[in-house]
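User: I'm writing a tutorial on reading structure tokens. Could you give me a worked example: one chain, its sequence, then its tokens, then a sentence or two explaining what the tokens reveal?
Assistant: Sure. Here is the example chain.
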Amino acid sequence: MFSSVAHLARANPFNAPHLQLVHDGIAGPRSSPAGPPGPPRRSRNLAAAAVEEQYSCDYGSGRFFILCGLGGIISCGTTHTALVPLDLVKCRMQVDPQKYKGIFNGFSVTLKEDGVRGLAKGWAPTFIGYSMQGLCKFGFYEVFKVLYSNMLGEENAYLWRTSLYLAASASAEFFADIALAPMEAAKVRIQTQPGYANTLRDAAPKMYKEEGLKAFYKGVAPLWMRQIPYTMMKFACFERTVEALYKFVVPKPRSECSKPEQLVVTFVAGYIAGVFCAIVSHPADSVVSVLNKEKGSSASQVLQRLGFKGVWKGLFARIIMIGTLTALQWFIYDSVKVYFRLPRPPPPEMPESLKKKLGLTQ
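And here are its predicted structure tokens:
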């Protein structure tokens, strides 16, 4: 599979150019034969920059996709686990709004009843589940992005790039949620049912004994409802925000920005995308939280019982959590790409063939 995708990736309009040293007068006088003078030499700085931009693998290669998946594991697993206390309070506000009346009240009640250790409930299924989700989310996004862009062709991939981001991220998240669902179900039981279980080792066997495999996957449909719109917004909004920041805000082209400067742009774009992600996915998140707590309820029954006002409980906490989460995830993911020297395509530019068709060039 990877070999066929790698072949397609070479013509992918989102592929970064492979910078390498060429013989444009860089060689010293000993290696220059006598003859007519050639083009002017490149400066040492430009040559050094080209060397620095040498990538560790080709865009769309098997190694590229595997390391992108590793970046997804690190970015999603660590950030979701770090925000377990906020996630716990948010879930309890959704499940029992009478008791947990707000984010600060929720923390106060949780600390009073469970102590500081209680805020870490559910960390193990959170880490495992979201690591697996990150692997599929980021790894498959890169795969589907290459596949769909080559199906569209260079010009249409540019013109329809927002739709391409939406389609690639939705496809990736479909598989990511299947990997996440079992751990998400266990996490919600641990966090929202006092006395049910305190650890994953206790919760998983108990859930299987009571309901079989259904206990782990009954929430996958509402999880798709929550996560697919979230991920579509996360990737499409991020990609277009990065493009807009470099075009209208950053005072110099991306190629002239240092790696730290590029990562700052990544963080800002990630936070903006995260705010929109939280809003579009919050109603489904409320349904998932209640559904995994209750036995025998369906998503439609929970939605009907919560009503319009009920599904928006805990939105402020979720905006803080998801905004920070998304910004950190993109920052970590991009940092992993920098560390492993993976190709990081610049914001897409209109292909020359399309410019000629539109009469933008001679």
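What the tokens reveal: The CA atoms of residues 291 and 297 lie 6 Å apart. The longest helix spans residues 259-293.
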